[in-house]
């Protein structure tokens, strides 16, 4: 075990990715587009969404792996700030009047 706790975390994250994330992405990527009933199409679309989401998270994890230890320590606090900003944006958006097809303002 390395003395640096962040190096240990990096190793654990990489091993977990190899063992769990990469095989899942591969499986989801290889789902064929099979013509058939609507239920099958819906399932395929959901699996593509899962693939895209897991792939996005894996790429962000790759970005985090490249950061120095001090930056990694600041990352959770930054995430908290981003979450709060998105919550605020959601509240502001919900308060904004919606436009109808004719361009008139409607109720939110």
Q: What are the defining features of this structure?
A:
single chain; mainly alpha; two-stranded antiparallel ribbon; 3 helices; 74% helix; 4% strand
Strand content: under 5%
Major β-sheet strand ordering: 1-2
The main sheet comes to: 2 strands, antiparallel
Work out the helicity level. over 70%
Number of helices: 3
Order of helices and strands: HHHEE
Oligomer: single chain
Structural class: mainly alpha
Explain what this protein looks like in three dimensions:
The chain has 108 residues and is mainly alpha-helical. Helices cover 74% and strands 4% of the residues. The chain contains 3 helices and 2 strands; from the N terminus they run H-H-H-E-E. It has a two-stranded antiparallel ribbon. Helix 1 packs antiparallel against helix 2. The longest helix has 28 residues, at 38-65. The relative contact order is 0.07.
Short structural description:
With 108 residues, the protein is mainly α. It has three helices and two strands.
Helix-strand layout with pairing:
Layout: H1 5-29, H2 38-65, H3 69-95, E1 98-99, E2 105-106
Helix pairs in contact: 1-2
């Amino acid at each position: 075990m390395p003395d640096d706790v962040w190096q240990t975390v990096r190793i654990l994250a990489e091993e977990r990715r190899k063992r769990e994330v990469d095989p899942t992405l591969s499986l989801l990527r290889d789902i064929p587009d099979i013509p058939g009933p609507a239920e099958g199409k819906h399932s395929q679309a959901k699996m593509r969404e899962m693939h895209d989401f897991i792939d996005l998270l894996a790429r962000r994890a790759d970005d985090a792996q490249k950061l120095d230890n001090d930056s990694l320590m600041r990352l959770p606090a930054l995430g908290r700030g981003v979450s709060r900003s998105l919550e605020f944006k959601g509240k502001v958006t919900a308060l904004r009047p919606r436009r109808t097809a004719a361009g008139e303002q409607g109720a939110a």
